[in-house]
Amino acid sequence: MMILNDKKLVNLIKYTPSIVVGFFAITVNVIIIKDNQDKANASIQSLRDDIIENNKNTIKQSTDKAYDYILYKKRGVIDELKTLSQQRVNEAHAIAMNIYNNNQNKPQMTVTKLITDALRPIRFYQGRGYFFIFQMDGVNILHGLKPYLEGDSAWDAQDLRGAYILREHIALIKQQNGEAFYDWWYQKPGEPVQKEYQKIGFGKHFAPYDWFIGTGEYIADIENDLKESLLKSVIDFEHTENQSLFIIDTQGNILANGNKQHNLALLTQSNAALTQKIASEAITQGSFMALNKQTANTTNNSKTEIGYLRKIEGWDWVIGSYFNASHVNRYIEIKQQEAQALNQKKLFNIISLSVFSTLFMVGVSLIVSSLITRRFNRFQQRIEQNINALENSKKKLHYSALHDALTGLANRSLLMEKINEGIKSAKLHNQLLAVVFIDLDDFKRVNDCNGHSAGDELLKSIAQRFKHAFDLNDTVSRFGGDEFVFCFPQLNHINEAYLKIEKIQQLFEDKFIIHGHEIKTQCSIGASMYPADDHHAEGLIHKADIVLYKSKTELKGSTTFYHHQLNEELQYKYLLENKLKDALSNQQIFVLYQPQIDATTEKIVAVEALARWGHPTLGTISPTDFIGIAEEIGLIKPIGLFVFTQACKDILSISPNGPNAIKVSINISPNQLMSADFIESMTQITDEIGIQRCRITLEITENVMLNELGKTYNVLTELKKRNFCISLDDFGTGFSSLSYLNMLPFDELKIDSCFINNITVNEQSKTLVKSILAISDAYKMITVAEGVERKEQLILLQSLGCHLIQGFYFDKPLTLAQLQKKLPKT
């Protein structure tokens, strides 16, 4: 056993504290150094992760921003094309109208040449665009690209899908107040005939010559123009010196590269394996990918660059951005070497002076900590600035996506959201919601008289009145052109909707001051209600639009609320339109004949051919219901040809040609009469059937002469030369003018039944009939009285000298067999 003596105790007391202190000091400092080394390594790794993550966020934000910008421009292609087409056609229309107004004393042929010469050389859309002019019957007046087509009819031209291109264009223009957008499929120059591309254009009616002026452009060409522009502009989006923005196609071809210098020149045509890998793995939602200059599958971080990629559907583009991870690795290595050198110095100082070394290490730690903190603060500020800039851009894009650029009002998308929100609230609280569709009356006149800039200012002034006139819960949207749609939610009674509409009308009572001029305007209004009329936003807007049209056609400036009877009428009309398309091919159209009686002998000398439609489920449909529809949808010409052909065959079959042969009157629509091949068609049919043309009377109404008097004169004169007889139907009910009788070669006047009904009891009707008979005698024309139903009417007409009588007093319209029995035996 060790014996503790004094010397040993002194030494123990003398050295033990020093040894213990030294041991603990060394131990503590070793622990501190080890702990500090571990913390340094962890800090370096954390720094590495944060820097890489920040760079990834930066390239993702940059790529997403460029991606959103491309999508925004891509979605606006069709709207931009429509706007440009409409502007070009309005300019061409103004040129043509100016030439016409300055040369009204010249022949139409001369003015036509002046107009076509003025419009033919005009080019736009980078030289691809041109103007074309067609008559409303399909005859080409001007074709800026293919002048050899001028003078030909394109009425029957079809695309590969079987659609009648020109017919549909003209129908849309007629339906939409003389101007309309349209789309069609057509071959591109230099492309195979079997391959067609979609075009969008705009056509506008030129009233003086019944033309329409139009233009169009391929959507693909406009998109290609946009692509070229985007390839130049998108690459200039902001990026740091350690990142690069690029665009490639889905085959791996490089379309644009934002930085081709130094180590950032990762994407080159020689590195095709990498670009093909990017093209094959990119997705629409976006994803990160490790990229390498040598091989696309390497996992060596020191040679790997990190990219963020997004695929743009429809264009087969991949847009992306990347940064060089090796730069980050070099930066971390430098920091790591600095930390190791510092730790070695700390160890030497701890051995020599542990306390000083410890204090020094604390100071150095504080300095290092402060440096790192400042560095992280700078990184955080830069990230916050980028995030704020991105948020501001998103807010601006979001606002633009939901608001009209001209007026600042909600656009169609935001309106739909507000209506859907209002419907949910109304359903929850058992309330009502009103959708009010308004359209400015005669807005085109404002543009024509004051210019389109004045029209735009008027729209903005109206929008400002709307904004300040209604509650925050109410929404007003510019729906397009001069149309606005209101959504009034949280209504407890329909009377509140009436008060809102009355407030709208009051906003138009004061004149608008535009460019120093007073402009007075009003609006027509259509309204629908939830839940009475519909439960969906689209349905409510559609039904408000339907009754708006009714307001404009019946009385401008009025208000109409939707009702189900109107919907039933429209559904019945649509049903007839659909069924009428197959009526001829299904042999449902047939002809009846109403006798015309000689007033002196009271014998049948002529008949009027009347078209009838017998449907297996709908029954017999009145001509007043289907003739107007046939004119609207372009079926009146084939139906008219069928009735003409059938009537000629039938009458010849029961009454051969000869001095006592029965004559036949056939109604001719304005569309038939104005068609280019009408005269030749009538001539060819009569020649093939063999009926004498002098037996055929073509009945036309006065409305055909209102806008086409010159052309009508030429057609009727030629028909007279070919021995057809011409009758003016319903004389006295329209815009009757004696100048028509003096100018046009009529053989017959038909007195409308509305004058015959009261002829025996109304002296004014009797006097009017006498006047018509006197006019016909003066012009040596035959008169036919329609709607004779009573004997006293017949006796009076006989006494007044009327030539032919037609009406139920003698017979209703007859089948051919019934008519044949009425004729005398020969």
TrEMBL record:
Range of residues in the leader sequence: none
Keyword DNA repair annotated: no
Every EAL domain range: 573-826
UniProt keyword terms in alphabetical order: Cell membrane, Membrane, Transmembrane, Transmembrane helix
Subcellular location: Cell membrane
Any Pfam family the entry gives: GGDEF
CDD domains, per database record: EAL, GGDEF
Membrane topology category: Multi-pass membrane protein
Domain GGDEF: 431-564
Record-annotated membrane-spanning stretches: 12-33, 347-372
Protein name (record): Diguanylate cyclase
Higher taxonomy: Bacteria, Pseudomonadati, Pseudomonadota, Gammaproteobacteria, Alteromonadales
